[in-house]
Write a structure and sequence with these properties.
Blueprint: E1 3-11, H1 15-26, E2 31-35, E3 38-43, E4 46-50, H2 53-59, E5 64-68, H3 71-80, E6 84-91, E7 96-101, E8 107-112
Parallel strand pairs: 1-4, 5-8
Antiparallel strand pairs: 1-5, 2-3, 3-4, 6-7, 7-8
């Protein structure tokens, strides 16, 4: 699998306050988008997320978002090492996404830029 980059996931209660802090820390401007009932702001290498607790409790279990060249290739690589696909692949704002559990129990989101 070709890993192109990693984004750290940060669940916050007050998105506007968090955006101001992370913009200052990274020097990057936030790009906001909705993911169902969750509001997300991409700021540098951070994904700041805020929304209903029912959604946030699930999102807190995902360690990071990993950009890959191709989600299908990633599925093959993950299953070859004993990983388990938890969700997806599903359409995402820029391509496709999936959530996988590694054999050690870590959970990651993988995203590509290939439209479904």
């Amino acid at each position: 699998m070709d890993i192109l980059g990693t984004s750290l996931r940060v669940c916050v209660d007050d998105l506007d306050s968090a955006i101001a802090v992370y913009e200052k820390l990274t020097g990057a401007e936030a790009v906001r988008f909705q993911r169902g009932p969750v509001t997300v702001a991409a700021v540098g290498c951070f994904f700041l997320m805020s929304g209903p607790e029912s959604e946030m409790s699930i999102l807190r279990k995902i360690t990071a978002t990993i950009a890959v060249k191709d989600v299908d290739e990633t599925i093959a690589d993950l299953t070859a090492v004993g990983g388990q696909i938890v969700a997806g692949p599903l359409p995402a704002p820029v391509g496709r996404t999936l959530v996988a559990r590694h054999p050690d129990g870590s959970i990651f989101e993988y995203v590509d830029r290939n439209p479904a």
